[in-house]
């Protein structure tokens, strides 16, 4: 069953909609699993990881299994540590990671990975620096998601979109399992600036000793669509300027989320050239 699409005509309608649907908890409400949001610059785009986009014809192939992927990121570690000045010395060696995946005492991958939190920290660091990743990033802030939707104009887009998901523990099956991780980890500062969580979709391989990456789009719609837990808000691209101005007044802009010189200049340029009259 597909996600539920909610078209909104104006930026103010989006704010009203997320409140009416109780997607922004009140002061007296506590949720163990908060609503998560993801913004896309074109409403026709789907939920795809950078690993899926990098290898579209091989995403469910055994060559992109979790074990093989770990071999790749472990091999990249020495160069990353050399030039970044960071170290991940506690990462398990590939044979140790293989034993962890094959452990019959732990059935679900998220339970296994929770015993090695440093793996997530490394995965998230790589994700934020452009290494093809099986993690799909989300945020607890609908406003941060909206900035990512409106930040850059996508070619031929008429609408942007913001996905909202209401995650629950243990969603999915043995063959298609989607789970979320976050937010407590020591990793790149963007993780905290953007209030990130991440989803990963996997399934057991035939040997029972490895996991294969599954397409985020189909697994999430299967796991969360029937209960109306996966929503898609579409907003006209014509609302871009008013949305960006409103977000900037809330100090939600490229610089506040990326803290780089490039994002600083981009934010200042937007204030001078887009928000003010020439």
The quaternary organization reads as single chain
Global shape: globular
Beta-strand residue fraction: 15-25%
How many distinct helices? Answer: 12
Largest sheet: 4 strands, mixed
Characterise the protein shown here.
- By secondary structure, the chain is α+β, with helices and mostly antiparallel strands.
- It is 40% helix and 16% strand.
- It has a four-stranded mixed beta sheet with strand order 1-8-4-2.
- Strand 6 (196-204) and strand 7 (211-213) form a beta hairpin.
- The chain is globular.
- The protein starts with a strand and ends in a 5-residue tail after the last helix.
- The model has no long low-confidence stretch (mean pLDDT 87).
What's this entry about, in short?
This protein is of the alpha+beta class. It is 40% helix and 16% strand. The chain starts with a strand and ends in a 5-residue tail after the last helix.
Task: Please specify the SSE layout and strand pairing.
Elements: E1 4-7, H1 11-20, E2 36-40, H2 50-54, H3 66-84, H4 94-102, H5 109-113, H6 117-128, E3 136-139, H7 142-150, E4 159-165, E5 177-181, H8 189-193, E6 196-204, E7 211-213, H9 216-224, E8 230-236, H10 240-249, H11 254-258, H12 261-273
Parallel strand pairs: 1-8
Antiparallel strand pairs: 2-4, 3-6, 4-8, 5-6, 6-7
């Amino acid at each position: 069953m597909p996600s539920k699409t909610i078209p909104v005509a104006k930026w103010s309608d989006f704010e009203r909609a997320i409140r009416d649907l109780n997607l922004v908890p009140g002061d007296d409400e506590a949720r163990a699993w908060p609503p998560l949001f993801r913004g896309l610059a074109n409403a026709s785009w789907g939920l795809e990881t950078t690993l899926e986009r990098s290898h579209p014809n091989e995403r469910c192939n055994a060559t992109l299994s979790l074990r093989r992927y770990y071999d790749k990121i472990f091999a990249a570690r020495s160069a990353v540590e050399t030039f970044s000045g960071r170290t991940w010395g506690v990462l398990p060696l590939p044979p140790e990671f293989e034993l962890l995946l094959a452990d019959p005492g732990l059935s679900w991958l998220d339970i296994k990975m929770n015993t090695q939190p440093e793996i997530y920290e490394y995965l998230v660091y790589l994700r934020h620096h452009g290494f093809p990743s099986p993690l799909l990033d989300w945020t607890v802030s609908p406003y941060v998601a909206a900035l990512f939707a409106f930040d850059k104009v996508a070619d031929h887009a008429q609408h942007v979109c913001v996905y909202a998901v209401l995650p629950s523990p243990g969603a999915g099956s043995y063959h298609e399992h989607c789970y979320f991780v976050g937010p407590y980890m020591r990793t790149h500062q963007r993780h905290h600036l953007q209030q990130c969580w991440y989803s990963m979709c996997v399934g057991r391989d035939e040997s029972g000793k490895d996991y294969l990456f599954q397409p985020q789009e189909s697994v999430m719609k299967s796991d969360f669509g029937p209960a109306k837990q996966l929503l898609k808000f579409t907003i006209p691209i014509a609302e871009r300027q008013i949305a960006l101005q409103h977000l900037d007044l809330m100090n939600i802009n490229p610089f506040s989320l990326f803290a780089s010189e490039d994002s600083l200049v981009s934010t200042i340029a937007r204030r001078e050239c887009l928000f003010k009259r020439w």
